[in-house]
Amino acid sequence: MKQKQLVAQAIVDATEGQLSLDEVMSKIEVPKTYDLGDYAFPTFILAKLYHKAPQQIAPELVEKISGDAFDKVQAVGPYVNFFIDKKAFSHNILNQILDQKEAFGQQDLGHGGNVPIDMSSPNIAKPMSMGHLRSTVIGNSLAELLKKANYNPIKINHLGDWGTQFGKLIEAYKLWGSEEEVRQDPINTLLKYYVHFHQVDEEHPELDDEARAWFKKLEDGDKEATELWQWFRDESLKFFKSIYAKLGIEFDSYNGESFYNDKMDEIVSILEDKNLLQESRGAEIVDLEKYGLNPALIKKTDGTTLYITRDLAAALYRFRTYDFVKSLYVVGNEQTNHFKQLKAVLKEMGYDWSDDIHHIQFGLITSGGKKLSTRKGNIILLEDVLNDAVDLAKKQIAEKNPDLPNKDQVAEEVGVGAVIFHDLKNDRLNNFDFNLEEVVRFEGETGPYVQYSHARAMSILRKAGQIDLENADIAGLQDEGSWEVVRQLANFPAMIKRAVEEYEPSVITKYAIQLSKSFNKYYAHTKVLTDDAEKNSRLAMVASVAAVLKESLRLLGVKAPDEM
RNA sequence: GCGCUUGUAGCUCAGCAGGAUAGAGCAACCGCCUCCUAAGCGGUAGGUCAUCGGUUCAAUUCCGAUCAAGCGCACCA
């Protein structure tokens, strides 16, 4: 960043103030290839000003720039290319990383502001599928990134523990369930009832009425309904927590939908007070015509509540409890309309903080091109995928590094890491069709590739023995291979900023791959542990790579084993 | 029908808030372990950036239309 400003200033000086620093800064770019330098300024905008061809302007600018601050300044066609002083630059950046360690890249974007993140939110009595993984893993990474940028994230697991579905589940249990069967295998058994309910329901729609009646009882506090609900919820949560443990993810709150049960009356009365509620077809709605949205259904004909009513209560509760600067919802893009409605209703209620609510949407995972559906039994169990990945990692270790200590732990870290990394690799919004082989792939642009790069770096440092790098003379490096690595390292803080601003963990995933690539390339061509004058600088670079890779992985929620 | 999202190599995707010959990974083919972990490195091959228009000195990138795909469109979440 400082370097870029230096370049911009040089251009401003050379043009004798014809362009402002900001103008120049916005035009400066990074050339695609190494031989074109580190920064480039295209002279097209000067063509009109000078009434000359850009190709002619570029060399004239070069004449006026003093080369002291740079290795080289060169005109190539219409571009002025800058080669920065590699040795001085790498000296600075390596010392900075060695000094700051894992704090490198930390910055104050958030001033400590609270940011509740609604994430994961699986439904009680249903297994977790690959769909839940996305929300969980994206939310977790955003939390780490926000923390790094000095926000205070609050991870909220907004459990789907309320709604008509429980009426269905209770009805199904009453019809076909057995207590013993549920005790033995809670989730799968409950799921079985639920799927069965929907099958039978196709031909006997009257079951829906029964289910609605049960949910009504539940909302009214009926003893039997509440006990069953509590039981299902406890069993489910036990199971979910085992998966979160595997993923290494913890939550600050498990307040799910049921938590807002007693907080909805207030919402309804506020809506009434502000004359926002209307009756329509026997239900209570808020008209959102002026937002170009469908009306928000606040209460059903039978008086029970809906998803949005609870989300309104939750939004208000979070605002009061956390006084947030932003409130995030990591939820699939099929719910885009819901969040538009939510924000619109809050706006109508006079809460201007509704602008601070952001729906962090993500693409759909399909299987065989079809949407995953718990009801239709078309699901991919997260548990299975994680287990498959860990098994595969075990096989790889047996094959490639049979003498590795704590094999099981490493297999866990690599297998689970591969799955998480894969989910965070692409743009959030992309849909993807689930393909097990791809998810548990360990070669190419994958999590294990990054972990492996880190392990290699650690291995060199181990072999280097006890060297006090912090006090050693790190003169800097200037060869082409290390330069690629160094400029990647220097990019880390900017990447964090971008990832936070765009709520996009994939920025970090891609960055980690790029850094790994340049490091592996370097590794293949340069022997680090050669005794010469630059050895300390090389080791400093290796230590920096290890630190930044480990930190990148941490921000993604992936472990970085020292050996694998 | 309306709204949102997407359309780049056989497959999966990058392309940094328009710029210099469009990049990776996988799959295919060919090389590289007497040398810090070959989960690696290098090479070959593979593209009318969906189509048509517009803005601009410059468009894969911005705008519009068309076509195609996915998701959503009140008593599920």
UniProtKB/TrEMBL annotation:
- On whether Protein biosynthesis is a keyword of this UniProt record, the answer is yes
**UniProt keyword terms in alphabetical order:** Aminoacyl-tRNA synthetase, ATP-binding, Cytoplasm, Ligase, Nucleotide-binding, Protein biosynthesis
Q: What SUPFAM superfamilies has UniProt attached to this entry?
A: Anticodon-binding domain of a subclass of class I aminoacyl-tRNA synthetases, Arginyl-tRNA synthetase (ArgRS), N-terminal 'additional' domain, Nucleotidylyl transferase
Q: What is its EC number?
A: 6.1.1.19
GO MF assignments: arginine-tRNA ligase activity; ATP binding
Q: Where is this motif: 'HIGH' region?
A: 122-132
Q: What is its main location?
A: cytoplasm
What does the entry give for GO biological process?
Answer: arginyl-tRNA aminoacylation
Give me the Gene Ontology terms describing cellular component. cytoplasm
Task: Kindly state which reaction or reactions the protein catalyses.
Answer: tRNA(Arg) + L-arginine + ATP = L-arginyl-tRNA(Arg) + AMP + diphosphate
Q: Which family does it belong to?
A: Belongs to the class-I aminoacyl-tRNA synthetase family.
| Subunit annotation | Monomer.
What name has this protein been given in UniProt?
Answer: Arginine--tRNA ligase
Q: Whose protein is this, by species?
A: Ligilactobacillus acidipiscis
User: What gene is behind this protein?
Assistant: argS
